[in-house]
Amino acid sequence: MIKKLFKKIQKKKLKDKRFEYLFDKPLSDEYVCIDCETTGLSPKKDEILSIGAVIIKDNKILMRKTLNIFVKPSKNVTEESIKIHHIRPIDLENAIEPKNAILELLEFIGSRIIIGYYIKFDIEIISKYTKKYIGIKLPNNSIEISSMYYKTRPKNSEYQFIDLKFDTIMKELDIPQLGKHDALNDAIMTSMIFLKLRELTPTNSTFYKG
């Protein structure tokens, strides 16, 4: 009920009616996995430098339906931030303006449920841009794969420590590494984790978040 009310309020705030499709019913058994590389770890202060996304449909990763774009930052990237995202100034020479990048991303996402690793951060930083350009936060439901993974791990007690690092999850699920960690590769590997976890998850379990 609260989620429906929140989305109704969001829809009224939408500045550009072309994006009403974001509020449509999610497509059946179709998801979009997203990963963002950013200048830092603060959604409020930092910026998106690249976005990788891929569609999952009917338990298959659609490699022909991917998004891989670099986003032009408002200022030059620093040496310290390069250590975080590994994106060099030369990589951003053909980067596109943030508004064009975000609108392209929204068209790619549609009304699909969003999947990601610590996806709350990605949604927060994307929402900073969507509020500026179309007046609303990203309204799509989301699934956090680290939560999915946690619920599949055997535990002796509810307080037992479970290592939720990305590389640990990959290793434990026997998911192959796809070369370097960039936004698109991370989105594809996250999609592989999601599909593997679906096999291990009871069908009546739900991981959706508004």
Defining traits:
six-stranded mixed sheet; 210 residues; 6 strands; alpha/beta; Nucleotidyltransferase, domain 5; 38% helix
What is the CATH superfamily?
A: Ribonuclease H-like superfamily/Ribonuclease H
**What name does CATH use for the topology?**
Nucleotidyltransferase, domain 5
Number of domains: 1
- The helix content, as a percent range, equals 25-40%
Strand order of the largest sheet: 3-2-1-4-5-6
CATH class division: Alpha Beta
Tally of helical runs: 7
Q: What is the assembly state of the chains in this entry?
A: single chain
**What is the rounded distance between the termini?**
11 Å
| General form | globular
Beta-strand content? 15-25%
**Low-confidence runs:** none
**Any idea what the CATH architecture is?**
2-Layer Sandwich
Mean pLDDT: 90
- Structural class category: alpha/beta
Major beta sheet summary: 6 strands, mixed
Total E-strand runs: 6
* Element-by-element helix/strand order: HEEEHHEHEHHHE
What does this 3D model show about the protein?
- The protein is of the alpha/beta class.
- The chain has one domain: Nucleotidyltransferase, domain 5 (2-Layer Sandwich), CATH 3.30.420.
- Helices cover 38% and strands 19% of the residues.
- It contains seven helices and six strands.
- The protein has helices spanning 2-13, 79-85, 98-109, 119-134, 145-152, 166-172, 183-200; strands spanning 30-38, 48-57, 60-70, 113-116, 142-144, 208-209.
- Strands 3-2-1-4-5-6 form a six-stranded mixed beta sheet, with helices on both faces.
- Helix 4 (119-134) links the parallel strand 4 (113-116) and strand 5 (142-144).
